[in-house]
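To the wet lab folks,

You asked to see what we're planning to order before we commit. Fair enough. Below is the target structure as tokens, and below that is the sequence we designed to fit it. If anything looks off to you, flag it before the synthesis order goes out.
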């Protein structure tokens, strides 16, 4: 027994020493491509990658968001390519990646960050909500990965960072379509890492908990949408329970530098993921009780969707003041105009 413990300890020390001495990835003059990079966490990551000396490419379905994001990122002095692109469209993704590679060179780092959030009871969700989540969280990540892999394999180097969620580890009630998409992304990303290492490509799966990005204003809410917004927005705003986008982005970039297999962000998320793994039956009971006695019942607007900014209801502004400021800072709400982005021609 003592021998086994000694060998285990020596192995752990050796592994930590290997990680400490391993060459650190340098982003200077690297091309970093970020989907969903025009607002929220994606924009904050783009800022920090640019500060590290990277050339940045971003995309979004919203041209006005791209206008503002380009103006924001140009302050960092690095080359920014912004393209209007629906990442659920395979052909447009191929065009987007090819265009950015012409402008910024081969893709060194791919960050699959595009996402959507639908909040509400299962009874108010439609098949289309699940299809949309899978298209955005899984299929879009697959399309971009397939588009960048040939050059990464040819150069035998590259980094892929998939922004999933702790909701891809724990199926939180009233977020079922979101969890389905994120569970798919976690499985894809974890398996991809094992298969691409032989080609010199490192894949990192990121599972953030609640963050203060301002996304509560653009999330979609169904059923009793004002009540759904209240619990969701409050959870995002509680200090200590949620993490700032700036802190999250810094930790994600550090994980990319190290080449970590997985990163779970935030103590509440880490505890939930650990509890799910160790006590799945008890966790299922806790989540069921939460659904039965805390979360809103079906009703309200039913299967229709209302944005968070239209669902604020009676929730005091003071509750979400912190995340509302983050929304303004991270381009989740409209601001001043900016130079036009570089747009692909219509197909």
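Sequence we intend to order:
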């Amino acid at each position: 027994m003592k021998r086994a413990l000694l060998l285990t300890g020596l192995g752990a020390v050796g592994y930590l020493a290997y990680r400490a001495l391993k060459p650190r990835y340098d982003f200077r003059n690297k091309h970093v491509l970020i989907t969903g990079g025009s607002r929220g966490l994606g924009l904050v990551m783009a800022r920090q990658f640019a500060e590290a000396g990277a050339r940045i490419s971003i995309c979004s379905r919203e041209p006005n968001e791209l206008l503002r994001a380009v103006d924001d990122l140009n302050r960092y002095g690095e080359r920014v390519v912004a393209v209007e692109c629906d990442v659920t469209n395979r052909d447009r993704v191929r065009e987007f990646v090819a265009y950015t590679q012409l402008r910024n060179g081969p893709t060194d780092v791919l960050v699959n960050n595009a996402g959507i959030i639908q909040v509400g009871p299962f009874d108010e969700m439609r098949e289309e909500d699940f299809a949309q989540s899978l298209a955005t969280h899984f299929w879009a990540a697959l399309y971009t990965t397939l588009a960048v892999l040939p050059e990464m394999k040819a150069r035998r180097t590259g980094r892929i960072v998939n922004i999933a969620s702790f909701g891809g580890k724990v199926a939180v009630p009233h977020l079922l379509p979101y969890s389905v998409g994120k569970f798919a992304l976690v499985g894809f990303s974890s398996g991809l890492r094992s298969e691409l290492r032989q080609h010199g490509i490192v894949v990192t799966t990121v599972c953030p908990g609640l963050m203060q990005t301002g996304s509560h204003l653009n999330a979609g809410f169904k059923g009793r949408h004002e009540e759904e917004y209240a619990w969701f927005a409050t959870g995002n705003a509680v200090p200590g329970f949620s993490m700032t986008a700036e802190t999250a982005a810094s930790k994600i970039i550090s994980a990319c530098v190290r080449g970590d297999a997985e990163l779970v962000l935030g103590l509440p998320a880490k505890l939930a993921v650990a509890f799910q793994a160790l006590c799945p039956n008890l966790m299922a009971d806790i989540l069921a009780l939460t659904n039965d006695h805390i979360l809103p019942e079906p009703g309200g607007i039913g299967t229709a969707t209302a944005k968070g900014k239209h669902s604020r209801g009676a929730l005091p502004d003071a509750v979400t003041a912190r995340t509302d400021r983050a929304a303004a800072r991270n381009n989740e709400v409209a601001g001043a105009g900016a130079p036009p982005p570089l747009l692909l021609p219509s197909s």
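Structural context that might help your review: Residues 12 and 276 are 25 Å apart (CA to CA). The chain has a mean pLDDT of 91.

Thanks,
Computational group
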